[in-house]
Amino acid sequence: MITQMLKEGSSRMFLDLGKTPPANKFLEKEGLKHQEEFFPLRVCFNEKLKLVHLDHIVPKEKLFSHYVYVTSTSKTFRDHFTKMADTLGQRFRLKKDSLAVDIGSNDGILLQGLKKYCNIVGIEPASNIAALANSNGIETINDFLTNATVETIIKEKGHADVVCATNVFAHTENITEFVELVKKLLKPDGAFVIEIQYFLDTIETMTFDNIYHEHLYYYTVTSLQNFFNTVGMTIFDIEHVDTHGGSLRVYVQKSENNNPQRMAVSDYLMAEKRKKLDSFETYAAFAKKVFEKKLRLIAAIKELREDSKRIAAYGAPAKSTTLLNFCNLTKEDIEYIVDDNALKVGKFAPGTHIPVVNSFHLGAHIPDYLLLLAWNFKDEILKKVERYHEKGMKVIVPLPKFEII
Ligand code: JHZ
User: Fold this and answer.
1) What distance in Å separates the CA atoms of residue 202 and residue 333, rounded to the nearest whole number?
2) What is the mean pLDDT of residues 327-351?
3) What is the pTM of this model?
4) Atom of ligand 1 at shortest distance to CA of 373?
5) Which residue, 327, 337, 306, 347, is CA-closest to 399?
6) 70 CA distance to ligand 1 middle (Å)
7) Nearest one of 89, 116, 242, 105 to 168, comparing CA atoms
8) 375 in Cβ contact with 323 (< 8 Å)
9) Beta-bridge partner residues of 357
10) What was the pLDDT predicted at 5?
11) How many Å apart are CA 371 and CA 327, to the nearest integer?
12) Nearest CA to ligand 1 atom 1
């Protein structure tokens, strides 16, 4: 088990982001009266596995049994997953009697696209989100990936041609057990397709706010390959995708399945060696720059506040919990956060207690500056706030590159 290996192995911490609440634990008004739970957010490098990981694990039931993130909120993601469904449908020649399973299927946006090719089923641990998917006609089992879930699917629908886990694999503590269940679920020649944030991109773009308790592991191709080799699986292709500041789509098969490995895999491995992703010093240098970014942002906000400028924010993504808490920005600095996800509106941001409002509020209370916390949707959100921008409201983009537009 990888967590066991990590405990035995030599992991060294390189970045301490302080204590933060779970990134998606938005509070109801009532919840403000109670003490919130904060957990250490520390990042380590394991020399043996060349793997970056958190050293404090928040139990998964606390994070995922009720969820507020709805994938389809942004057009960018609706388009991304619709396109991904077509890529998989065509690449694996999925047909009416094929089966695609999505683990952590959220509101079912990927399966919605796959449905026109083959049979589908989702596995989603958050009861409210699974109910949403089912009500949208996407058959979804409300559970984590367990042996019982896998057996039910095999019994009712057979083995899977494709199993997907997008933005789920980095969230899973016991990946050995997880992958054993995926292998059981897959046909002998089936494909396991994951999407993960790529830690090389995180380092190069300095998008450190993507570090929060839901993400236990921060993968590179080197660390992924090291892991898959221990469980009889082989990476046979990799594509770069530009979600979340830079991610990888990784195609994995059972090792006995000998599909030729695409050049992309060795290209990534060589590039990572060149960029010294196997060395602790690379990560220590990244950590140093994280603190420089923090100081830059705090200084800019403080200067504006001293100048009596009103600041609000757009987007209450999970990553904003890291950024705001790490930079000690509170409701004294940021008046409100606009989010288009109805499950977040009316609540208060974890740790900072900044109120989350809908976009009508922005129209009625136009600030001097709008901090773009969902910086990964810069173009989509800039379009939405264009008319306020034209009236003089400025937009602060905190990451990857600090800029004021
Ligand atoms: P977004 C999610 O992280 C959650 P987050 C999860 N834990 C994970 O692992 C990562 O993805 C990878 C809002 N928004 O997608 C919607 C608008 O309001 O960057 C979201 O609240 N209007 C699974 O939460 C937030 O911004 C808009 O027009 O960091 C974006 O969250 C748009 C475009 C977005 O993921």
Assistant:
1) 26
2) 96
3) 0.93
4) 26
5) 327
6) 8
7) 105
8) no
9) 338
10) 58
11) 13
12) 317
* Averaged confidence pLDDT in the chain: 95
Start-to-end C-alpha separation, the chain: 48
Per residue in 214-268, pLDDT (tens digit) is 999 999 999 999 999 999 999 999 999 999 999 999 999 999 887 788 889 999 9
What is d(CA 166, CA 109) in angstroms, rounded to the nearest whole number? Answer: 11
Mutate which of 212, 340, 395 for ligand 1? The one with the most ligand atoms within 8 Å of its CB, which is 340
Give residue 188 CA to ligand 1 midpoint distance, Å.
35
Token digits for 75?
A: 């057009």
Residue 339 in tokens: 């989010």
Work out whether the CA dihedral 12, 17, 318, 128 comes out positive or negative. Answer: positive
User: Tens digit of pLDDT for each residue in 264-313?
Assistant: 999 999 999 999 999 999 999 999 999 999 999 999 999 999 999 999 99
Pocket probe for ligand 1: among 20, 63, 69, the residue whose CB has the most ligand atoms within 8 Å is 69
What does the alpha-carbon distance between residue 376 and residue 207 come to, in Å, rounded to a whole number?
10
Residue 1 confidence (pLDDT) above 80:
no
Ligand 1 nearest-atom number relative to CA 377: 33
Helices (H), 92-193: 109-114, 127-135, 147-157, 175-185
Instruction: Specify the residue for token string 């720059």.
Output: 289
For residue 209 the two structure tokens come to 């706010």
At residue 3, does pLDDT exceed 70? no
Residues paired with 253 in a beta bridge: 234
**CB contact at 8 A, 212 and 20:** yes
- The 10s digit of each residue's pLDDT in 123-177 is 999 999 999 999 999 999 999 999 999 999 999 999 999 999 999 999 999 999 9
Convert the pLDDT of each residue in 62-94 to its tens digit: 888 788 889 999 999 999 999 999 999 999 999
Best of 25, 74, 77 for a ligand 1 pocket test (most atoms within 8 Å of beta carbon): 74
Is residue 143 classed exposed, middle or buried when 0-12, 13-18 and 19+ CB atoms within 10 A define those classes? middle
Judge whether 85 and 40 are in contact, CB under 8 Å. no
Q: Report the alpha-carbon distance of residue 43 to residue 61 in Å, rounded.
A: 21
